[in-house]
Specification:
Blueprint: H1 5-17, H2 23-30, H3 34-42, H4 45-58, H5 80-100, E1 114-116, H6 118-121, E2 126-128, E3 138-142, H7 155-160, H8 170-181, H9 200-209, H10 211-225, H11 238-242, H12 251-256, E4 261-262, E5 265-266, H13 273-279, H14 281-296, H15 305-317, H16 322-330, H17 333-336, H18 358-369, E6 374-375, E7 378-379, H19 409-431, H20 455-469, H21 475-506, H22 509-512
Antiparallel strand pairs: 1-3, 2-3, 4-5, 6-7
Amino acid sequence: MPLDDVRLARRISLDLRGVTPTLDELDRATDGELDTLVSEWLVDSRHEAHLADVFAEAWALRADELRVGPTEFGFEDGDLPWFTRALEDEPARLMARVATDDRPWSDVVRANTTLANAELAALVPLEFLDPTDPAEWKEARYTDGRPALGILATSGLWARFATTRFNYNRTRAATISRELLCTDLLERPVSFVAITDPAPDALEAATRTVPSCVACHAGLDPLASSLFGFWPYDDKDGPELLTYHPEREPLGAALLEAEPAWFGTPIAGVEQLGALIAADPRFTACTVHRAARWLWQREPEPADLPVLARLEGEFVSGGERYATLVTALLDSEEYRAGDYLAEATDVAVGQTLHSMSAPMLASFVEELTGFRWEWEGWQQLDADVSGYRVLAGGVDGATVRRPALDPSVSRTLVIKRLSQAAAETVVLHDLATTAVERRLVGRSVADMAMPPDDAALAVEIGTVHRRVLGTAPDSERLDALLGLYGEAWALGGAEAAWRTVVAALLRDPEAWTY
């Protein structure tokens, strides 16, 4: 059965903006204005930032540590949080800007500009198109002669997916195939034979002569050969790794003994690569597949192929605008599925309840409470060197490449601690301000210090419940929350009572599922 308009509005708002609808937006959804709300949310500034989180997680861009560090650029070790995020977020920000600017999606591999913030500009050779732009991430252009290849020309992408001197860009070529074509060469069913000579020259020769090696390298090496302008002599030298070297472009053919090509189509120069990718039907099909995986929160199955084909047709006919694809997916039955039918069985139904990703948990809580979980510069739900991203079900970019959003002990504990800290933050803030300045609690009353028998308490708890969970509590739940408030009030007064109720609501499974 499909979700009702209010529950659907909550799902769409979280997927497009990473936050729940306001009370006014919930009222508008109830009044039949959902389509208007979706149009507004697609141009909301939070949509672009949330899309950047989505793309960063899907591409496993945020890995905490890179092959190079801040000290190689004259900064301190303590600058690692902003250093890594400035680089790793560059391709995600560019993809998000292409999507929200309503440009053809092929611009992600053909644009002659990038997105940069001040920190990134201190690391790589680029200039802002409009230095007076007040936005944190501004349009910029590289000044080292690199070709117009969209994200494939970003220093951020190749800092994240670095190559060693003797890997010769193969890791990068495999990344292009995996992320843009949905073709992971490591998943090919290849029967390997033992190579008796471990010498580097013998291994290189095997990639061109042993059939089990040629199965992948025949397509991989010509693509890697086209990327030698980005190949570093010293892969641990920061400026060397982040600068384009046009004079090295011919080295690919010599070192790999493979002329540059895109899966059989010769490449005269790397500047042709973007057009070849954009013209490849696998690029469009992969874009649709990955968008469906994001919004359906499951891997598309063979049974979904007719739906994916229809979505791809709408995407192409709409000028390959990402918003067109997103809108079509939001309208799909698969996305709007809510409750199981009475006759459904375990094997006959798919996923109908979505769970918040680690970045979404962070944005959801921050929007409601103002609490941002940070320590020594690291966002705790978006880091693992010093954080809880994987424990919360997130992706670390190294060993965990897909979100794990099913309930687990670690995820439940992270949400518990997050809810407690956020509840303390918002209650202390709201107790110290007037009703109009409050974030979450007491916005309809003059004084939040309400005893348990105050007639206005039930209304206020119901309002907070609706803001957090999207729906008003039924009588049984309201009685339970009033009882919880009363017990905490007896122990610590209004502050303890509201902290307890808010924490309970934030950690409720209905709060972090949608």
